[in-house]
Amino acid sequence: MASEPKLVRAKGIIEPILTKYVRTYSAPVADAIPVSKRKFLPTSGTYPKGFLAVGIHVGVKATTKRQTPDLALLASEKPCSGTAVFTKNKFQAAPVTVSRQVLERRSGEGIRAIIINSGCANAVTGKGGLDDASSMARAVDACFQASPDNATPARQGQGSDMDPSSTLVMSTGVIGHRLPIAKILSAIPTAYSTLSATHDNWLRAAKAICTTDTFPKLLSRTFTLPSSPGTTYSLAGMTKGAGMIHPNMATLLGMLFTDAPIPAKTLQPLLKHAVDRSFNAISVDGDTSTNDTLAFLANGAAGGDPITSLTSEDGKAITEIVTTFTQQLSQLVIRDGEGATKFVRVRVTNSPSFADAQKIASTIARSPLVKTALYGKDANWGRILCAVGYTDGLSPGAVVPEETSVTFVPTDGSEMLKLLVRGEPEDVDEKRAAKILEEEDLEILVDLGGGERGKGTEEASYWFCDFSHEYVTINGDYRT
Question: Using CA atoms, how far apart are residues 123 and 104, in angstroms rounded to an integer?
């Protein structure tokens, strides 16, 4: 914890002597990860065929003293189908604009790589920022063109409007500063030449996109599809984020990769469905970044018939697989929330619609009063109910006070603690409540009782963390 001001008496006046704050959210030594977070770090992985990764040190972060990676490159040995969802913040960063244009001009096909820097967001940087983002993409394209193994030989004008770039660009870090673009462009050929499919390279790429994260967020898994049970496919993903987290139809920064054969026209609705139930259902502090981007690339390298419909057996299977995977990946962001001491799931059930349930869950997850009460281990269920009551945009009759119940659900399997039952407060055992709130993990269950008509059966979940003193410390000196 940050040290507290010491009070001394001088000439009859009490004056504070401010001692230096210690940033306990940063790794204390090179490449160290807090003990409590080490369990989330993978020691091995099963990565999709044909995808390569690398993370290198460029020096984007001006104050970085260690040779930590800050430029990541992820590429496919063959052209991919690609899609992405982006921030709805009106001040959209240059890489968001450039990446959206790449996907639109290519209709989601022929994507080869994603280049990401950390330390500078390249946001609110004008035309110069757009030029910088475009130049990063063109530099990666040039590496593919120069490679003797290039599966798609370069055509004249590669990277121009006639033949658009095949590289997506992402940036994360401080807003309002230009990139050290010369450093980045000179390092891209080195990154390209050291691409590899090893776990160490994937992990180094995940480290390269981190900012205030205390650990890199990387997951991978294998799966099969009903139409080809003998074929093993792989899915990998990485993400970054610990603050400025409240996505809106997108996410912080994230990438998904699979060797399953999924064309772009299927990939887009697949990602949308998964994100609405994962990255669009997390919140650290209620702020939506200027740079939020989640990209999904599929190269089909493992073979099999293309998945052309999400209503087919393969489509249903891949929807469940990707949704579950993105939920697990997005939850790592909440595990690493700036200054967080709690990992909380709020589940809203028996709602007239999924949209109503998600709006209520989101409002609870963003409430500073709920978040601070959880940090203080205070079972103040009135704050939860208050958030339910002021949720905007609900359908008529979605919330009926006399039908609403609130419960704490311990994650250790012990008995639930009912706080409010159909509008009537329970005689709460405060000692038991305090014991439940001592744990890191908690579930809050809000039952709407079916709404006004009593027939609602939809539910939605949101994952969030608490607000601590440390969150203020981290964000109070972020740029220093």
Answer: 21
Radius of gyration of the chain (CA): 24
pLDDT digits (tens, 9 = 90+) for 53-99: 999 999 997 655 567 899 999 999 999 999 999 887 788 899 999 99
CA distance 157 to 165: 10
Q: Are strands 441-447 and 343-351 parallel, antiparallel or unpaired?
A: parallel
- Active-site positions? 251
Residue 319 near residue 310 (C-beta atoms within 8 A): yes
* CB neighbour class for 153 (10 Å; exposed up to 12, middle 13-18, buried from 19): exposed
Both structure tokens of 55 = 């993370």
CA 376 to chain centre: 26
In three-state secondary structure terms, 372 is: helix
Task: Judge contact between 315 and 309, C-beta under 8 A.
Answer: yes
Output the CA angle 213-218-224, nearest 5 degrees: 160
- Other C-beta atoms closer than 10 Å to the C-beta of 195 total 18
CA 216 to mean position of chain CA atoms: 12
For residue 443, CA distances in Å to 92, 282, 333, 365 come to 34, 14, 17, 12
